[in-house]
Automatic annotation (TrEMBL):
Source organism per UniProt: Auraticoccus monumenti
Annotated stretches, region: Disordered: 1-23
Protein name listed in UniProt: Uncharacterized conserved protein YbjT, contains NAD(P)-binding and DUF2867 domains
Record Gene3D superfamilies: NAD(P)-binding Rossmann-like Domain, UDP-galactose 4-epimerase, domain 1
InterPro entries: Ergot_Alk_Oxidoreductase (IPR051604), NAD(P)-bd_dom_sf (IPR036291)
Length: 291
């Protein structure tokens, strides 16, 4: 091939970026930011425009076809045993479809997630990995938000500090990784700028919302009973048991500088997110009062 002839295997730069988990906390934000930057997006999940089901690999090649790269969130969590097989297969399908890279969301220091990353990389396509801390949005919009809205944060975890991260930072790092080749194949630890215990997080929630959010440290058996009573699927109960019972042992307590490395600015602080969330909530309440 001469230097002037087109590389027939190079992905089309005008082709869409596939977002797997496009209705989720990070996927939704990644898709929004890409669209704002003028990048076409193919939004995929069970309920998105492009059907994608982790339990049905037969549909994956169609979702991947004609895309240039993909942002991938595995559900329910990259640490479950099924993730390695699924990620290995998706990465092989992506290489076959000619994608230039995958940007994969992971937790930090999780052996199960590391196996899934290894399986994806073994397929021979560049995989950029974002190892994120526990999301602040878990308590403001995710699974634990209803409990916090009721004035309680109750989890089976002790005085273990966590550098809680704002999902908006995760999404901005993901978009940079998708659009700038310099990040290709690298691994970034994406955390907030300082570590707090869950008790300290509850105190910050109380301070910014002006309503008490009481911290309760649960025993594991009590927590598991509560999750089952709340109707969480058994797979999610097991997942939370592993997360809080094994992985919250201090191994991930230190903040890391992935946001600074990729975005050239510090990560957002807990207070910034909580203040922003409290302001948005009060606007909703005022709006509702006026109607
Ligand atoms: N939460 C944290 O603190 C944290 C921290 C670090 C890393 N992570 C990682 O974040 C990932 C989850 O990302 P997220 O928080 O952005 O998503 P999320 O808010 O948990 O939402 C899950 C997404 O996956 C889709 N989904 C659920 N089941 C699916 C299935 N069977 N097949 C296809 N799509 C399915 C959902 O859409 P549909 O319902 O439309 O299918 C939704 O778009 C996990 O892999 C976890 O390891 C989480």
């Amino acid at each position: 091939m001469t230097s002037s002839s087109p590389d027939l295997h190079a992905p089309d730069p005008t082709a869409p970026v596939l977002v797997v988990g496009a209705t989720g906390k990070t996927g939704r934000r990644v898709a929004e930011r890409l669209r704002s930057a003028g990048v076409p997006v193919r939004a995929a999940s069970r309920r998105s425009g492009t059907p994608f089901d982790w339990d049905d690999p037969s549909g994956w090649p169609d979702a991947l076809a004609g895309t240039r790269s993909a942002y991938v969130t595995y559900s329910p969590d990259l640490l479950v045993p099924a993730a390695a097989g699924a990620l290995g297969r998706l990465a092989a399908d992506a290489r076959e479809a000619g994608l230039e890279q995958l940007v994969l969301l992971s937790g930090r220091n999780e052996p199960g997630a590391a196996r899934a990353v290894e399986a994806a990389r073994a397929a021979g396509i560049p995989v950029t990995v974002l190892e994120a801390a526990w999301f602040l949005q878990n308590v403001t919009e995710g699974d634990f938000a209803p409990m916090v809205a009721d004035g309680v944060l109750a989890l089976p975890v002790g005085e273990v500090p966590e550098p809680f991260v704002d999902v908006d930072d995760v999404a901005e790092v993901a978009v940079a990784a998708l659009l700038d080749e310099a990040h290709r194949g690298r691994t970034y630890q994406v955390t907030g700028p300082r570590s707090l215990t869950f008790g300290e997080l509850a105190a910050e929630l109380s301070r910014t919302s002006g309503r008490e959010v009481r911290w309760v440290e649960l025993g594991m058996a009590e927590a598991v009973d509560g999750w089952r009573a709340a109707g969480l699927p058994e797979e999610v109960v097991q997942l939370l048991g592993t997360l809080f019972g094994e992985l919250f042992d201090g191994r991930s307590s230190r903040p890391a500088d992935g946001v600074q490395q990729v975005l050239g600015r510090p990560a957002r602080d807990v207070r910034e997110h909580l203040a922003h969330h409290a302001a948005a909530q009060s606007q909703v309440t005022c709006g509702a009062t006026r109607v």
